[in-house]
TrEMBL record:
E.C. no: 3.1.3.16
GO molecular function terms attached to this record: metal ion binding; protein serine/threonine phosphatase activity
Key words of the record: Hydrolase, Magnesium, Manganese, Metal-binding, Protein phosphatase
Listed Polar residues bias regions: 41-58
Signal peptide feature range: none
SMART domains: PP2C_SIG (SM00331), PP2Cc (SM00332)
Domain PPM-type phosphatase positions: 91-378
Designated name of the protein: protein-serine/threonine phosphatase
Family of the protein in this entry: Belongs to the PP2C family.
Length: 388
């Protein structure tokens, strides 16, 4: 395979025109479609399980460069501010368990502040041109990767994908390229590059692949990129908003694409490409090209003051719980813990409590797959009035 040299003008964007059109069309059509090692191993003949869970939580602090004292506008002047600036950092938690599978093939990545940029530079600022939009602030990265045929590709993505995305974003882009188009190009090139590296660096055999659901969180935007059937949702007020749509072989547009390339979708324990793979896009899986492609679908969601949390998870959760059920559980736990303000008796964060509880529910409902969940609390630093 011919090696690629970095090109500061991103000439590769032209060669990816078809993919970019596909990703743009896919993300545009979403609104009409929308809807360290762990184990649970048998310890007795009675079917009881012992469990070791990988989980972690943390707080992502706000990043404020030294800029002197803020000059406040006159009281009569109301100036818009970046939505995300109302939160002085975000808190996250995750779990990743093998469940009832024999091998752990999931991997997760939480990279706080993987980039530091002004909101205007990232794009999609809710207050363009304001003072806050020109302040440097962190951009966070979250990813869930569900491997199949082995764990190699998922682990590689967890270690490498955020680096590739940051590198591609910093490359010179076409003049006049709008911010959404720039992110689409970044993710398209980034996913393709990660896919190519899996082959050129002999990360895994051709029959190994992985899903990839990634969220880039800036002060004002939630940017989601997805390949496969892992999923991301946003809890906003009383709503649970899907940020991705599972890329299944029998999804109308995916079925048309696969059959248009001469492939077949066979129902074998569910719809599968050639009767083998139960998803239509993934990183890796070279033996199923051109039907399995590493082209992500990308969505952009402006943050609001009503946002509660983000949830990314592998299908070990979604196979046994609906978006609405997951959202209800998350809202209930988050609001209960915020009201109680009893952190002194419990060291785990609200986000970690949600991730733990969802994992327990999925396992209790006999999920047969690995279960990996990331929860990002978008309201953790809001000022709350103590209960009287």
């Amino acid at each position: 395979m011919e090696s690629r040299d970095p090109d500061p003008q991103l000439d590769r964007v032209d060669s990816l025109a078809a993919d970019l059109e596909l990703a743009s069309a896919s993300s545009t059509s979403l609104s009409s479609i929308l809807t360290a090692d762990d184990s649970r191993s048998p310890t007795s003949s009675s079917g009881e399980f012992s469990r070791t869970t990988t989980s972690s939580s943390g707080e992502i602090p706000a990043f404020l460069p030294p800029s002197g004292e803020e000059i406040r506008p006159p009281a009569a002047v109301v100036r818009p501010k970046c939505v995300g600036r109302n939160n002085k950092g975000v808190t996250w938690g995750f779990t990743s368990v093998i469940g009832r599978r024999r091998e752990m093939e999931d991997a997760v990545a939480v990279i706080p502040g993987f980039m530091a940029r002004t909101c205007d530079h990232v794009g999609g600022c809710t207050a363009p041109g304001s003072r806050t939009s020109s302040e440097i602030s962190p951009v966070h990265f979250f990813g869930v990767y569900d491997g199949h045929g082995g764990s190699q590709v998922a682990k590689y993505c967890a270690e490498r994908m955020h680096e590739v995305i940051a590198q591609e974003w910093d490359r010179e882009t076409v003049d006049g390229c709008e911010w959404q188009r720039r992110w689409e190009t970044t993710f398209l090139v980034g996913f393709e590059k990660a896919d190519s590296e899996v082959l050129t660096e002999a990360v895994a055999p051709e029959m190994v692949g992985s899903t990839a659901v990634v969220v880039v969180l800036s002060g004002c935007q939630i940017i989601t990129s997805n390949c496969g059937d892992s999923r991301a949702v946003l809890c906003r007020g009383t709503e649970t908003i899907p940020l991705t749509v599972d890329q299944k072989p029998d999804r109308e547009d995916e079925l048309k694409r696969i059959e248009g390339e001469g492939g077949k979708v066979i129902n074998w324990n569910g719809a599968r490409v050639l009767g083998v793979l139960a998803m239509s896009r993934a990183i890796g899986d070279r033996y199923l090209r051109p039907w399995i492609i590493p082209v992500p679908e990308i969505t952009f969601t402006a943050r609001t003051d009503e946002d509660e949390c983000l949830i990314l998870a592998s299908d070990g959760l979604w196979d046994v719980m609906t978006n609405e059920e997951v959202g209800e559980v998350a809202r209930h736990i988050l609001r209960r813990r915020r009201r109680s303000m009893s952190s002194s008796t419990d060291d785990i964060s609200a986000a970690q409590a949600v991730a733990d509880h969802l994992t327990e529910i999925a396992y209790g409902r006999n999920s047969s797959d690995n279960i990996s969940i990331i929860v990002v609390d978008l309201k953790t630093k809001r000022k709350r009035q103590p209960r009287q």
